[in-house]
């Protein structure tokens, strides 16, 4: 693979609600480049409010890629994402020196920057047996099995998301290898530079932004968005923070106030897991999102 020493992929990562979208638009404008989304829930065109997809003004300010290009009913995995992004970059770098990938999905960012081995498609019989175990014994035995087979992934996965647990167990059982090994084994060479920038805020500041964002989502019509997706509710793409809590409310299991509070709690937990994932990567240089000047200087010094 012939190196392109003057081509650079800038990675902007960090927890939800930290301010990635706003700063990435400023950086993209400064570098005259476009934005690739690495937010695995923004891939789905039906999900907008609950995943904080960039709005019309933001999409008009800078061209974005890999947002709303899938349906929630589409099967998609991180291996396919890696192949599609690398193919996109091969073409994009023919006429551009910089590209920007932005998101909070650590596995997807790792797939692009480090590579990921091919993940097998789901095995129907194995998935069926695991689902029977889930229905008969509950989630706890599956969580404990994952903890034994892949303790690293157990530390960062959403332990309340049965589909994430099932998928990780499938890979462990089908391959005989930990699910997490597919993102850390044998870093693949890339023919472009990679500059990783992490965004973080003091915990109280981040949590306040999360609470305000959730309130804003409700005001913008999150409940109505979730209602419109009722027929898809059993899909993995809908088993995500903001949607599952509203479904619980719509089923009459709690009040709207309780559902909103639960979204805030689960979003804070998700942000902590994201930070746990990213803080393990020593290649990331961290900034406060308000330090736009320092970030641009940092990029320019390395490109």
How many strand elements?
Answer: 6
Cα(first) to Cα(last) distance is 20 Å
The percent range for strand residues is 5-15%
The averaged pLDDT comes out at 92
Distinctive features:
303 residues; alpha/beta; Rossmann fold; Histone, subunit A; 2 domains; six-stranded parallel beta sheet; 6 strands; 51% helix; globular
List the helices and strands and how they pair.
Layout: E1 8-13, H1 20-31, E2 35-37, H2 56-61, E3 64-65, H3 78-92, E4 98-103, H4 106-113, H5 124-137, H6 139-149, H7 151-156, H8 162-175, H9 181-184, E5 193-199, H10 203-220, H11 222-228, H12 244-250, H13 256-279, E6 284-287, H14 292-301
Parallel strand pairs: 1-4, 1-5, 2-3, 2-4, 5-6
Question: What is this structure, in a nutshell?
Answer:
The protein has 14 helices and 6 strands. Helix 5 packs across helix 6 and helix 12 runs antiparallel to helix 13.
Characterize the structure shown.
The chain has 303 residues and is an alpha/beta fold. It folds into 2 domains: 8-117 and 186-301, Rossmann fold, CATH 3.40.50.300; 124-181, Histone, subunit A, CATH 1.10.20. It is 51% helix and 9% strand. The protein has helices at 20-31, 56-61, 78-92, 106-113, 124-137, 139-149, 151-156, 162-175, 181-184, 203-220, 222-228, 244-250, 256-279, 292-301; strands spanning 8-13, 35-37, 64-65, 98-103, 193-199, 284-287. Helix 3 (78-92) packs across helix 4 and helix 10 crosses helix 13. The mean pLDDT is 92.
